[in-house]
Specification:
Immunoglobulin-like; single chain; 4-stranded antiparallel beta sheet; elongated; 3 helices; 5-stranded mixed beta sheet; alpha+beta; 2 domains
């Protein structure tokens, strides 16, 4: 191995050896051997025979302190992860809510079950079903919309309430229908039907029952 050094390299080696020597000396000053510890205990009039037990207790406390610090770091990491998950869920739900808030509806139509494209203003109580046709707009795709229809009699009482989920949406304009059977138990007068999504009324219509 090449051992020749330039004057500059020699100076650097001397400087590094001096640094290492000083480091070792400082370490030795900070560390007492057993004989020195025993002498200090004697000077302080402390029981030397308890030295090993005291050292063991010290090592245990240091181990417990290190374990406690590690648990605190793990707990902090778990809390940070939980907060990140909660924030992500909140953002997703907020975005979903904002998207659903954009859904609107065209004016609905009352027809018999066989839709002729018209809009009944009067319905005879003959026990047949009537249908409420609504076209939704700005509908998000790949969603099952949970819709509610309330059929309200002239007194404002809910005569029938429909809850249903649409099939998976695949277009922004989405037609949907809810139904109600009106027989002799249905009181005559002005009725109202409401279609809502998540508690928000999208469409409403009135009609006469005779």
């Amino acid at each position: 191995m090449e051992t020749s050094l330039t004057e500059t390299q020699l100076g650097q080696v001397v400087e590094e050896l001096s640094r290492l020597a000083q480091q070792r000396e400082d370490e030795q000053r900070r560390t007492l051997d057993r004989e020195q510890v025993v002498q200090v205990l004697k000077d302080l009039d402390l029981p030397v025979e308890l030295l090993d037990e005291a050292m063991e207790q010290l090592r245990r406390r240091e181990a417990l302190a290190q374990q406690s610090r590690r648990k605190k770091w793990l707990l902090a990491g778990a809390c940070a992860l939980l907060l990140a998950v909660i924030a992500t869920i909140f953002i997703i739900m907020y975005h979903r809510s904002a998207v659903f808030a954009q859904i609107s509806a065209e004016p609905g139509r009352i027809t018999r079950v066989a839709d002729d494209g018209g809009n009944l203003e009067k319905v005879i109580r003959n026990g047949e079903e009537v249908a409420y046709h609504v076209v939704l707009r700005d509908v998000p795709t790949n969603e099952n919309l949970s819709l509610t229809c309330k059929w309200l009699d002239p007194s404002g009482r809910v005569f029938r309430e429909n809850h249903y989920d649409t099939r998976l949406t695949d277009k922004s304009v989405w037609p949907t229908t809810c139904r109600c059977q009106l027989g002799s138990a249905a009181p005559p007068g002005t009725w109202r039907v409401e279609m809502s999504l998540g508690g928000r009324v999208l469409s409403t219509a009135t009609f006469q029952v005779e």
